[in-house]
Design a protein that fits this description.
Elements lengths: L5 E2 L2 E2 L7 H8 L2 H12 L9 E3 L3 E2 L9 E2 L2 E5 L4 E7 L6 H14 L14 E7 L10 E7 L5 E12 L11 H8 L3 H5 L6 H15 L1 H42 L4 H7 L4 H10 L1
Parallel strand pairs: 7-8, 8-10
Antiparallel strand pairs: 1-2, 3-6, 4-5, 6-7, 9-10
Length: about 280
């Protein structure tokens, strides 16, 4: 995609959905502050600082899975917030988010320290796919008992689903529009919003004009295309291999080739391969 690429008559931009552009966007303190304010419903004036932290979570033991977070922020009250953008459908996302939340929660507790040192942790998942079938596009989960009484505020999970219909009433709506924007015209519609959104629009426009970021974007797009092609090939090979094994078992158990064609939709080429392995 070239610098002056046009989408349906509109000047294209680098999408905020990709890891490098999302991290670049969140490196702006004003953007971080207003985004967190809108997500957590905290007045901006009450957020004195939103310090970026190291996004690598250390492994306590050799066999532990290393945690790598997209954006890790610490508020002035030491609340830790992980903000993660995911554009590819991910199996068991709920368990994955709990894994990173748990690692983040215990990360800074050293041997012998009191549990009081453990600080509140929040995981924000921004998903470019639908995690649930309901209409809610901003869901908040906390630890509660069966009657809805809160057990602890130590853990909190926010899930933002970008592909659902917006109500126009939530403070997060404009941010979702920003993440989904594909052209400068769409960004301009958000430029009159909050200071944080104005900064985010400026950052995305600037990224879209920078040759270095354009090259990264194009490389990232190529990587996604290549990955999808590889996964498609592996799935196809797996299906063909599974079909071949099933065909061999069918024939070994007394099934005829005619039945294999009728029941398993086997081709002559598949039958020939199966014959050679019988």
């Amino acid at each position: 995609m070239g610098k002056n690429t046009v989408i349906s008559g509109k000047k294209a931009i680098i999408s905020a959905k990709y890891d490098f552009s999302f991290k670049e966007l969140m490196s702006n303190e004003t953007v971080r502050k207003y985004f967190i304010s809108d997500i957590l419903d905290i007045p901006v004036k009450k957020i004195r600082s939103v310090r970026l932290m190291n996004t690598f979570l250390r492994k306590r033991y050799r066999k532990h899975k290393l945690g790598i977070l997209d954006v890790l922020v610490e508020l002035n009250d030491r609340t830790k917030i992980n903000i993660e953008m995911q554009v590819v459908v991910y199996d068991h996302w709920d368990r994955r988010s709990l894994f990173y939340l748990a690692k983040m929660y215990v990360e800074e507790l050293h041997t012998g320290e009191d549990y009081q040192q453990l600080k509140r942790c929040i995981h924000v998942s921004i998903l470019d796919f639908n995690l649930t079938d309901d209409e809610e596009y901003h869901s908040v989960y906390r630890l509660r008992d069966a009657k809805g009484r809160e057990y602890s505020d130590a853990w909190e999970i926010h899930v933002i689903e970008l592909n659902k219909k917006l109500s126009g009433k939530d403070r997060i709506d404009d941010w979702i529009a920003l993440f989904n924007a594909q052209s400068e015209e769409e960004l301009d519609m958000l430029s009159g919003k909050s200071l944080g959104l104005q900064e985010a629009v400026r950052e995305l426009k600037e990224m879209s004009m920078t040759k270095r970021m354009r090259l990264r974007y194009e490389a990232h797009q190529k990587e996604l295309r290549d990955r999808n092609a590889r996964e498609s090939y592996v799935r196809k090979e797996g299906m063909e291999q599974g079909q071949e094994e099933m065909l061999i078992r069918f024939l070994k158990n007394g099934g005829t080739e005619k039945q294999a064609c009728q029941m398993l939709q086997a081709t002559e080429e598949q039958l020939e391969k199966a014959r050679r392995k019988l």
